[in-house]
Amino acid sequence: MTAREKHDRMANAIRFLSMDAVEAANSGHPGLPMGAADIATVLFSRFMSFDPIHPHWPDRDRFVLSAGHGSMLLYSLLYLLGYEDMTIDEIRNFRQLGSKTAGHPEYGHATGIETTTGPLGQGLANAVGMAIAERKLADEYGSDLVDHHTYVLAGDGCLMEGISQEAIALAGHLKLNKLIVLWDDNGISIDGAVSLSDSTDQQARFEASGWETVGVDGHDPDAIAAAIERARSSDKPTMIACKTTIGYGAPTRAGTSKAHGSPLGPEEIIGARKALGWTSEPFEIPSEVLDDWRVVGLTAGKKRVAWQERLDAADATVRGEFERRMRGDLPAGFESAMAKYKKQLADDQPKVATRKSSEMALEVINGALSETIGGSADLTGSNNTRTAQTAPITPDDFSGRYLHYGIREHGMAAAMNGIALHGGLIPYGGTFLVFSDYARPAMRLASLMGIRSIFVMTHDSIGLGEDGPTHQPVEHLAALRAIPNHMVYRPADAMETAECWELALADTGSPSTLALTRQNLPALRTEFDKDNRCAYGAYEIASAADDAVVSIFASGSEVEIAVQAKSALEANGHPTRVVSVPCLDLFAKQSEDYRNAIIGDAPVKIAVEAGIRQPWDALLGYDGIFVGMNSFGASGPYQKLYAHFGITAEAVTAAAESRLHDHAGRK
Amino acid sequence: MTAREKHDRMANAIRFLSMDAVEAANSGHPGLPMGAADIATVLFSRFMSFDPIHPHWPDRDRFVLSAGHGSMLLYSLLYLLGYEDMTIDEIRNFRQLGSKTAGHPEYGHATGIETTTGPLGQGLANAVGMAIAERKLADEYGSDLVDHHTYVLAGDGCLMEGISQEAIALAGHLKLNKLIVLWDDNGISIDGAVSLSDSTDQQARFEASGWETVGVDGHDPDAIAAAIERARSSDKPTMIACKTTIGYGAPTRAGTSKAHGSPLGPEEIIGARKALGWTSEPFEIPSEVLDDWRVVGLTAGKKRVAWQERLDAADATVRGEFERRMRGDLPAGFESAMAKYKKQLADDQPKVATRKSSEMALEVINGALSETIGGSADLTGSNNTRTAQTAPITPDDFSGRYLHYGIREHGMAAAMNGIALHGGLIPYGGTFLVFSDYARPAMRLASLMGIRSIFVMTHDSIGLGEDGPTHQPVEHLAALRAIPNHMVYRPADAMETAECWELALADTGSPSTLALTRQNLPALRTEFDKDNRCAYGAYEIASAADDAVVSIFASGSEVEIAVQAKSALEANGHPTRVVSVPCLDLFAKQSEDYRNAIIGDAPVKIAVEAGIRQPWDALLGYDGIFVGMNSFGASGPYQKLYAHFGITAEAVTAAAESRLHDHAGRK
Q1: Which SUPFAM superfamilies does the annotation name (chains A, B) (predicted)?
Q2: Contacts of residue A118 in chain B, CB cutoff 8 Å?
Q3: ipTM of this model?
Q4: pLDDT one-digit tens code per residue, A378-422
Q5: Which domains does chain A have, with CATH numbers?
Q6: Whole-number mean pLDDT of chain B?
Q7: d(CA A445, CA A66)
C-alpha cells in the first residue's frame, strides 16, 4: 500500500463518518468535512502534537475549526484518533439532544474541542488569542514548557466576516509565526459561488497585513504537507490557501452549494461510496483504517511524555506556578493584597471615577497576579486599563503584559476568549460600554463557553457627556444582562469596584463586564468589610431612619443620587432605604428569602439607573417607579444631561413624594 | 493672491473654527479637522456637487465623514458654505445641549449631515450603500436624473474596524466606481502611533479587493485634486491615501496623539495662529475668506438648476414616480394589493413558517413597490428574502433588485442604512436572528437616525433546532427591544406577518426587525380584518369562554402554544384568553386604557416566548408566570428542544392550574 493510498483511506474515513452522521441526523453539513478531509488528515497525521489520553496537556498544538458548521470533521477526527469520550455512539447521535456531537462544536461537550465555533470568523480570532498566549507563556516559561502551534481551518465565511480582518491585522502586526491558517478555498457559499458576492484576492489581502501565504491543491497531501512545513519555519503567520472541492466524492453535488448544508441523500452517498471505493457499512471504519488513525493518536502522545519529563525536572517553584496558572487558580497572596487595599480605601475614601478606581484595583491585582494580560481597543488612557506592571507587548518582545489591540473591539474580545481558552493567562480588555455592541458576538460566545474573559467597559452612561448619543450607552446594560451566564457589574464607588474585580477574577465559569464611569463618584462604602457585599448582587447600602416607606434601588453612578434623595426624603419625614445593586445577575441567584428581604416592603419602590427600565421591571413590579432613560442620549456636559433627562436626586425625591401623596389620598 | 494662498486661507478657516469651537466647548477633537482641512477644501471647492439652499437635492454628491469625531470639519464646512441652519452661533455652541453641533455628526440635526457617524467604520459602510443606491437609481432613471459621487473621509480607526473589510470587499466586488474614499493617513491613534497596533499596507489591502488606490501628500492641494480626478475616471472604487499631519499647524501637538481628542489650550492655539498666519478673533472668519467659501456654495448650486430643468422636462409619470420615491411615500396601489392578499390568506389559511409567509408577503410587496431592494448575508434560501421580482444585482448589471451581500451581516446592515439614507429605495436584508449581534452597531445607528431599514431575521428561537446554541437566539428579542426606536415584530402566522410588513414599510421614522420562524405555524388569524391588528402591538386573539381567570400573552411561534393551552384550560373549566403580542414596542405606545384592557384582570397571567423573561416583566408584574428560556439553547430536533426547555402547552396549562390552585387555597 502506498503512502497515498493509506492517506486516502484515512481521509475517506472522515468523509464517510461525516456523510453517515449527517444522513442519520437528517441535518448537518457534509460539504466541508468531505472537502477538507485531506487537509485535516495531513495536519493531524503528520504535524499535530496532542495526546488523546491527556487531552488537556498544556503544550499541545491547538486546532481550531473556525468553520464550525463542519463539526463532523472534528468529531470524526476525535473518534478516529481515540479520544475516549468521542465514541461511535456519539457520532451516531450527531445533533441529538444530550449528545457530545452538537450541530456546531461546543467547548466543554467533548475533550479536543478547543473552542465553540459556528458564528463565522470567531474561531480565527480565538486562534489569534491562543497564539498570543502561547508566545507570551513561552516568553515566561521558555520553550521547554511552552512551544506549540495554533492551526485554524477557516472557510470563505470566516474570511468574509469583518472580524477576520481585525484578527488578521493583529496577528500580522504581532508576527505570530506559530499561527497557521488553512483556508478551505472551495469557492462555494450558501447562496452559490463565492463569486456572487466576493472578488477578493485573499492571499494578497493577508500579505497586506504581514502574512506569509501559499496556495496549494487541497487534495494533494504532499503539497499540503510541504506548505505546512514552510509555514512552520516562517517568521510570520502563514495562510495556506487550499483549493478544494466542497463535498469531494459526491457524484453530483460535489463542487456545488448543495453539498454544503443538508444531507446528501442515499443515492448520492451510494455514488460517493462507489467513487471513493468505500465498502464498509455506515458508521463502520475498517479496522486497518482505524488502526492507522489510532497509531497517529498514540504516536502524537509521545511528545507529551518528553514534555512531562521536562516539567518534572523544572524548578519546583516554577513548576508549581506554571501548574497553578494552567489550572486557573488565583495565587495565595491575592486575597490578602486585596484586603489590604480595601482597608486603605476605607481610610482614603477617594472621590474618583470608577474607571479610575478600576485602575487602582488593577494596580493591586496586577501586582499580586502574574497571569493577568491587559489591553484596550485603542482607549488605554480612557479605559484606565494599563498599570505600572503592564508594559506593552510588541511584535518583537512579549515580556510585557499589555496589548494594544487597535481599534478592533470585536477582534479584541474574541482574542481574549482565545487567551482564556488557552489557559495560563487571565485576559482583560477595555473599550467604551457603547462599543460592547461591536464585541457582542464574541462576548456571547464567552458566556456560552463559560470562560473567564473580563471586559472593562468604561464611559457607561450619558455621564460621558459631550461625545453624544453615538457614544452613550442606554440599552447596553439591559442587553448585556440579557445574555445568559454573563455577569454585568456596575460598581458605585472604589470599594465596590474592588469587590467586583475580586468577583470577576474568582469566577472561572463566567465572563464578566465591568461597567465603569467616566465621571467622579464619592466614596459611599467607607468601612472595610471582610464580606464581599457585591457578591450578593444587591444589598442595603443605607438603611432607613425608621420603618422605610421608600426603597430606592440604584447601580453605579446613580447610587450617589439615591443616597442624596434619601437624605431629602428623610428630611421631609419619609424614612427611606437605599439598596445598591452592583450586579443584577448575582442578585437573581440569591435565595428567595434574601431577595424578598432586599426588595423589602416599603410601599414606594424606585429604581434609578441611567439606562432603560427593562432589567428593573422584575424588581419594580407594576407599581415601582423608574428614574432613568427611555430614549437615546444627547451631546452636552454631563451634569446638564442628567438634569435634562431627569435623573437627579430632586426627580427621585419628587417622584417618591408624589407617590406617597397618592397612597395617603387613597387611605 | 495665488491659488495656493487662497486655498490655504480657506483651509485655515476650517482649522481655526475647529480649534476655537473645541476650545470653547472644552471638549472635542481638533486633530482631524486641522489635519484634513486641505483634503476637505479641495474636495468641496473643486469637486462636490451640492446646493446649500436645497440641501436635499437628490442628485447631490454625498459626503460622509466616517471619522465622525472630526465633526468640526463638517460643521465648519457647512457654515462656510452657507448652509442656513449652520450659523456661527451653532459653531459657538459646539457640543452643547440642544445645539445642532453635537459631539459627533447627528443625522437630522442639521442639513448637510448625510449620516450619523462616530462609531468607527460605519460611515464607510453607509457610503457603500449610498453608492449602491446611486448606481441602482441611475440604472432605473438614467444619468440625467441620477449621476453623483459618494465621497468618504475615513480615518485609521475606520480602516481597523472589521466592518471596513466587509464594506471594502462588497464595494470592490460591485465595482462601485463612483465611490471615492479619502483616507486621512495621519499615522496616529488614541494610544499613540498606529504602528503600536497595526502594520497593514492599506493600499495593498484595498487593491486585493479590487480597488484603485493612490497615495498623495494630504497637504498638497494639487496632488489631492489630481488623485480625485483620476478616481473619478476609474472603473473601480478608489481609495486615496492622504498622508497628513494630525493637528496640522499646532506647534507642539501636531503629529501626536495629543492633538486628537482634547482642546489644544490657549498657548498652543496662539502658536498655531502664528504658524499659519491667522490674525482674526476666535470664531471670526475674514470676510474675503468667507466670500471665497460662499462663492463655492453658490457655484456648486448651479448644477442643481440644470438638473431641475431636466427633471421638469421628464415624462410626467417618471417624474411623479421619481419624486414619490425620493419622498419615501408608498405608492397608491400598495394598500389594496395587501388587502387582496390578506383576503386570500383568510381563505387559504396556510400552515407555513413565518419566514415563508414573509416571502409570500414580499411577493406582493415587491410587485406593488418598485423601490424595495432585497438581500441577504448569504442565507437567501433560509431567509426567504428573494422573490420573483428580485433578480440579483451583479457588478455589471444593476437592473436587478437583490443583493448578495455575502457573509457580512454588519456590512449589510450599514449598507442598508446608506441605501435608506440616500433615498429612493427601501432596503430589506436577511440573516439569522442570532446574528443580529454581528449587525447590532449598524442596527443601533438606524434606530438613532430613525431610518427605514428593514431587517429580516429568521430562525428566531430554539425552533431552528439542530444547529444548536450558537445559532439559537435566546436573548436577542430582549436585546433588540432594548434599543430605543427600534421596532421588533414577531408575527404568529401569515396574516400577522403581512400586517407586520405593512407596518414596517409604512414606518418612515424607525427601522424594523421582523423575527421569523424556521418551523411551520398554523393560521390563527383566519378572518380578513381591514384594521391592522398588529398596529396595536398586542391584542386579544382568542377571548375567554367566560370571565377569564387566566390571560396568556405570547408572541410568534408561541401563540400556537398559548391557544392550545387555552383549549386545555377551558376544557378543565378555566376560562382563558390569549393575547397575541407581535410588537411590545408598539404596545408600549398605546393609551393606558388600551394597555390596561389588554393586560386585563384575570388573576393568573402567563407570558410565553422562546426567549428570556426580561422584556415581559413589565407586563407580568411580580405575580406573572413566564414560560420561556433562562439559559442558552441546545442542539437537537426542535420539537425535542421545546419539550426539553418546557415551552409547551402542557407546561403552560400546568403552571396556570397550579397557580389557580394556590389562589383557591388562599381563599
Answers
A1: Thiamin diphosphate-binding fold (THDP-binding), TK C-terminal domain-like
A2: 467-468, 470-471
A3: 0.98
A4: 999 999 999 999 999 999 999 999 999 999 999 999 999 999 999
A5: 3-306 (3.40.50.970), 334-521 (3.40.50.970), 534-666 (3.40.50.920)
A6: 97
A7: 13
